Amino acid sequence: MHAMQYEVTLPADYDTDVIRARIDRVGHLLDDWDGLGIKAYLLRERGMQGSPVNQYAPFYLWHTVEGMNRFLWGGGFQRLADDFGRPAVRQWTGLGYAEGTGTRPAFAVRRRQPVPEGADLAAMMAEAAGAAEQSAAEDGAVLAATAADPHHWELVHFSLWEHDTPAAEGDLFRVLHLSAPGRDRLPRGRQW
């Protein structure tokens, strides 16, 4: 499993209905993308639910590298780059994934966490993988994943929720659409 996210931070007075209309228009294009586990179309709005910014920040879980690369280099990502400029794309390698009992994601939580120098890597990664299981077991959880970036030594914790009071800490986003053509192919549990 591979996790990926880019963020498009928008001006404070930006009409976020433009983003909603964009997702209504193009969100379905990844509903059958080969290699994609899920793409959550995420939006934060300044002043709402604690957000300091307007930000469009889709989050992806891929079950194949080929699908991710086809998206990045084969035209899918180009539409966004043409409209908003080319944002930096963060990538993490999967540590853990779990399904919850929730069914309709309305909110997402993303928390990035540094891996401190001198940390016991095996223990920290095992704990992070277990955190996905714990989050997914909470009431209202749809799914949870954890992944690591060994270049910047960062963990990412990502979860989808049915309600706006998730049992997870981090940046809260509204889910405007979920493409999940390969969700059933995302590997469950610890990824090593």
Listing every helix as H and every strand as E from the N terminus to the C terminus, the arrangement reads EEHEEEHHEEHEEEE
The CATH class label is Alpha Beta
How many separate helices? 4
Which geometry do the CA atoms define? globular
Question: How many DSSP E strands?
Answer: 11
Beta-strand fraction estimate: 35-45%
Helical amount:
10-25%
Catalogue the unreliable spans.
none
User: Could you name the CATH topology?
Assistant: Alpha-Beta Plaits
Going across the biggest sheet, name each strand in turn: 1-5-3-10-7-9-8-6
Main pleated-sheet profile: 8 strands, antiparallel, barrel
Compute the separation of the termini in Å.
11 Å
Question: Topology, please?
Answer:
Blueprint lengths: L1 E5 L1 E3 L6 H10 L9 E9 L9 E3 L2 E4 L2 H9 L2 H9 L4 E11 L7 E8 L6 H16 L4 E9 L4 E8 L9 E9 L9 E2 L2
Antiparallel strand pairs: 1-5, 1-6, 2-4, 3-4, 3-5, 3-10, 6-8, 6-11, 7-9, 7-10, 8-9
Question: Summarize this, please?
Answer:
The protein has 192 residues and is an alpha+beta fold. It is 23% helix and 37% strand.
